[in-house]
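Q: My labmate handed me this sequence with no annotations at all. I'd like to see what the chain might look like in three dimensions before we decide whether it's worth expressing. Could you predict it?
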Amino acid sequence: MSYRPTLYVSLALVAALSFAAAYYLDVSELVRTVAALPFVGALFAALFQVLRDHSSFERDRIKQEREHAFLVASTSHMSSVAFDKHVEFCEAYIKALQALLGKLFAEGPTEKAWEYLKPLYDVRRTYRLWVSSSMAQQLDEFEKRVGEIAAALSQWKSASDYKLGQIHHLDKAHKLFAEVMDMEKADRNGPDADSKKAQGYTLVFEHLQSILGIETLTNLRDKVLRDALERE
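A: Here is what I predict for the chain of 232 residues:
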């Protein structure tokens, strides 16, 4: 605990002098009372300082424990392996995603979406041990939307009622495609549809980067580097 010896010695000296003056001097009760006030004040000041120093000590202790826990977690063999595997997974998944989005960008809504999803599923299976449940759930949601495009088009082709079946499923497929590419309904067939698709392509990547924690890891790495430089 980082106490301040000089401060406590000063408070003790003030308290001792005040007590001695109040107890030994042959003066009136009023003067004794006034002389004793610094003694009482010194006691309160000492108590306040003890509490303040203790609070500061606890903050420093908690901070050191957290830094130690972070250091152990970040430098342990298991964390290094997990981090490396996470990076490998991100690289493989993004590569497969680029191929999928490129095909969707070129073809639009297509029944082949199921086929295009297969490389993503293969990557997920290869690295399933290193993918957290929360990340898996978010990736499932994205992949589900892509798969639903193929399902809607398949239903569109097999629907017997043109008005109630085919149009409904075809519209659903285009709606899902627009959601995947982050396009509004008015943008689907507009003059700047290709531009909107390109913007959606970028937004999908940013969304997937967020899910994969790439920005978080980058910020964490930058923080570690800054802290290391500040200690030098």
